[in-house]
Structure formats: structure tokens, C-alpha cells
Specification:
Length: 137
């Protein structure tokens, strides 16, 4: 059977997984937000502060996952993939948060800051080792 060499197949699979990891990170953040808000509402049913903290933690972790995992999995151009994850995550977040008004303002800022810091970690790594970015098989 003729086909792609094993190394090329592995690289293609990593590209596919890195792109698929972006919406999976968004889904994970929604699931985490639901879980944390449910736990928070059981612990303090009338306390909106607990709900806000749970949403903020979930948003920050979700942003981290949405940016970091695709960037780590991608075989090349890691900072570019991390930037795509950040952009899609930020767009999704703002689309969800816009109808909610100022209620989700703090979680949105937390997610945007954490996602940006995760993206910047890839930019710093690329600056330290530019050969890694330029490497092509």
C-alpha cells in the first residue's frame, strides 16, 4: 500500500487534532462553568459572588485550555495556532457575554487576559528558539 510516510501521517494527525482542540477547549470551558456554578449554587444558593467567582475561574481555565492545548499539539507554527485559538475563543466569549451585559464582565476580562498570557508564552518560546518555528520536514 502506497501512501504518505509515517512521519507525514503523524504531522497531519497533529494538525487535525490541534485544530479540533480549539472547539473542544470551548466545550470544556462551558462544562466546567456549568459544574462550578452548580457546585457554587449548592454551597451558597443566594450568594451571587460565589456564582461570579465560579464563572471567572471557569472562563480563565477555559481560555487557557483553548489557547494552550492547540498550540502544544501543533507540529509547526505553534504561536500562530495559539493565536487562532485565542481569536476564536475571544470571539466566542464575546458573543456569549454580549447578551448577558455587565454580569459577565469580570469573567470575560479574566478569560481574555489568561488567553493572551497563554498566547504570549508561545511567542516568547518562538523568540527564544526561532529554528523551532522555521523547521519544516
Amino acid at each position: 500500500m502506497h501512501g504518505l510516510p509515517s512521519k507525514s501521517k503523524n504531522k497531519m494527525l497533529r494538525w487535525f487534532i490541534s485544530i479540533a482542540a480549539i472547539p473542544l477547549g470551548l466545550l470544556a470551558s462551558m462544562g466546567l462553568a456549568y459544574l462550578l456554578t452548580e457546585v457554587g449554587s449548592k454551597l451558597a444558593p443566594s450568594n451571587h459572588f460565589v456564582f461570579q467567582v465560579a464563572c471567572t475561574i471557569a472562563a480563565a481555565i477555559g481560555a487557557f485550555i483553548t489557547v494552550l492545548i492547540p498550540g502544544k499539539i501543533a507540529p509547526d507554527h505553534k504561536s500562530s495556532i495559539a493565536l487562532v485559538g485565542y481569536g476564536l475563543g475571544a470571539t466566542y466569549l464575546l458573543a456569549i457575554a454580549a447578551p448577558m451585559g455587565k454580569f459577565l464582565l469580570i469573567p470575560c476580562f479574566a478569560a481574555l487576559i489568561v488567553g493572551y498570557l497563554a498566547y504570549r508564552s508561545f511567542r516568547r518560546a518562538d523568540a527564544v528558539d526561532p529554528v523551532k518555528v522555521q523547521h519544516h520536514d
